[in-house]
């Protein structure tokens, strides 16, 4: 405990780090304030009553509300949050794999290319927000939460502009945090939205267990949650190190020159190279049955509507079986797009380096590809299990709001963002010759000069 207090004191002593943390907290506070400012023309009492009477509280719209920190159900000016920007970023990233123009911007044109990509991403964000804003207003109107005295045209035009402005403002906040704060701004905005629902869900779970005399069950739940978080940290930070050897070089001049042993390094292949993207893609696909159930289902066909209803409930067995396999498949697909064995082989050749026992060129690329495929299997299965854990937690009696933190996108984002932010704080401490955040080594291990090679990011 004393060491923890000393670390906090050291963080506060560093003026630059202190200012960055305070700036970040201020921007996050502004973002959270916007989550409670209701759109004009919306009756918040009628909206909450309609949501409370929802026949299926486990539908996918509840997951969207979690990511926006409750702003979605509040019909606030930040109802869409930062999600349209995330959607636009994913689209641009996928275009970078398939369209030569975006490939050139990402790989060959350096800083100017990145600026151009950022500009395109922002424009695409606005376009997506305009479309999603119209759909969201239709959803609110369908709940009967719109004041009938407000003219329809004014309601639609003004609120679509306000929703778009809210998303652009959230995007601006994220960029300012990245530039002048600590951590990745956009990721922190999503994390804050997720964490916002944690205290209420935790208190509700505790009170409900205590009322039923299940204090021991609550302790067991917390122990399981801790174990899941630790396992997630291990998978997120886990790498398979492939040793490499740099060629020998001559030391000295003339007859006194002698060969010196080449430097050693390693290629860090991540067990979970795809990160959270397979779960995001899988969730996007699982939204389709919900849309069909809402707009295209025929009430006369009870069987098909029953299937659609099950696919719109993330606690149903059918939903989770399909969801698991989609996550596993997308993990392999996205890893294949992210990790480029040929690029690794070319880099090693340019650096006059090699993998011991493996011939340079195609043999090296095939070896790295085989290792990547092998370690992706446990990574993909783990992602699939993490994706469906909230449904298992809900099945064992954990309330849905708290069960969302037992796995899924929420847990992976929380773990990844927290580790990244703590690593940046630790870097500031180590640069000023203070102790880091852990007793020995670095928070996420030593970095290799090969880190990031072969990833088309």
From TrEMBL:
Principal localisation: membrane
Pfam families found in the cross-reference section: SecY
Keywords of the record: Cell membrane, Membrane, Protein transport, Translocation, Transmembrane, Transmembrane helix, Transport
PROSITE patterns for the chain: SECY_1 (PS00755), SECY_2 (PS00756)
Protein's membrane topology: Multi-pass membrane protein
Subunit: Component of the Sec protein translocase complex. Heterotrimer consisting of SecY, SecE and SecG subunits. The heterotrimers can form oligomers, although 1 heterotrimer is thought to be able to translocate proteins. Interacts with the ribosome. Interacts with SecDF, and other proteins may be involved. Interacts with SecA.
Entry similarity comment: Belongs to the SecY/SEC61-alpha family.
Functional description taken from the UniProt entry: The central subunit of the protein translocation channel SecYEG. Consists of two halves formed by TMs 1-5 and 6-10. These two domains form a lateral gate at the front which open onto the bilayer between TMs 2 and 7, and are clamped together by SecE at the back. The channel is closed by both a pore ring composed of hydrophobic SecY resides and a short helix (helix 2A) on the extracellular side of the membrane which forms a plug. The plug probably moves laterally to allow the channel to open. The ring and the pore may move independently.
Protein name listed in UniProt: Protein translocase subunit SecY
Organism the protein comes from: Flavilitoribacter nigricans (strain ATCC 23147 / DSM 23189 / NBRC 102662 / NCIMB 1420 / SS-2)
């Amino acid at each position: 405990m004393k060491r923890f207090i000393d670390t906090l004191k050291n963080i506060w002593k560093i003026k630059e780090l202190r200012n960055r943390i305070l700036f970040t907290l201020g921007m996050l506070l502004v973002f959270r304030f916007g989550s409670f400012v209701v759109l004009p023309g919306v009756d918040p009492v009628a909206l909450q009553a309609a949501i409370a009477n929802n026949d299926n509280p486990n539908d996918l719209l509840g997951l969207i509300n979690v990511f926006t920190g409750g702003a979605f159900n509040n019909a606030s000016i930040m109802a869409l949050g930062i999600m349209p920007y995330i959607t636009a970023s994913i689209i641009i990233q996928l275009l970078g794999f398939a369209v030569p123009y975006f490939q050139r911007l990402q790989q060959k044109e350096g800083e100017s290319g990145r600026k151009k990509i950022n500009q395109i991403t922002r424009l695409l964000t606005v376009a997506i927000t305009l479309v999603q804003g119209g759909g969201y207003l239709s959803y609110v109107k369908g709940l009967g939460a719109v004041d009938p005295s407000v003219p329809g045209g004014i309601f639609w035009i003004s609120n679509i502009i306000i929703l778009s402005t809210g998303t652009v403002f959230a995007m601006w906040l994220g960029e300012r945090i990245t530039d002048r704060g600590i951590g990745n701004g956009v990721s922190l905005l999503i994390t804050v939205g997720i964490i916002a629902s944690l205290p209420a869900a935790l208190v509700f779970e505790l009170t409900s267990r205590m009322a039923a005399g299940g204090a021991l069950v609550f302790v067991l739940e917390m122990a399981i949650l801790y174990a899941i978080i630790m396992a997630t940290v291990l998978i997120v930070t886990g790498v398979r190190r492939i040793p490499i050897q740099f060629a020998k070089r001559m030391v000295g001049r003339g007859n006194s020159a002698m060969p010196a042993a080449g430097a050693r390094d390693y290629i860090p292949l991540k067990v979970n190279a795809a990160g959270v993207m397979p779960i995001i893609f899988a969730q996007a696909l699982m939204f389709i049955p919900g849309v069909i159930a809402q707009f295209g289902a025929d009430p006369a066909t009870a069987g098909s509507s029953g299937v659609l209803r099950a696919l719109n409930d993330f606690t149903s067995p059918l939903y989770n079986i399909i969801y698991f396999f989609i996550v596993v498949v997308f993990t392999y697909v996205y890893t294949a797009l992210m990790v480029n064995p040929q690029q690794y082989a070319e880099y090693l050749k340019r650096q006059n380096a090699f993998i011991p026992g493996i011939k340079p060129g195609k043999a090296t690329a095939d070896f790295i590809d085989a290792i990547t495929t092998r370690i992706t299997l446990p990574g993909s299965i783990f992602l699939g299990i993490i994706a469906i854990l909230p449904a298992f937690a809900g099945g064992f009696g954990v309330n849905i709001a708290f069960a969302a933190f037992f796995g899924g996108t929420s847990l992976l984002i929380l773990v990844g963002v927290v580790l990244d932010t703590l690593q940046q704080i630790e870097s500031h401490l180590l640069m000023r010759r203070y102790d880091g955040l852990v007793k020995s080594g670095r928070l996420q291990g030593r970095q290799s000069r090969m880190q990031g090679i072969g990833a088309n990011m």
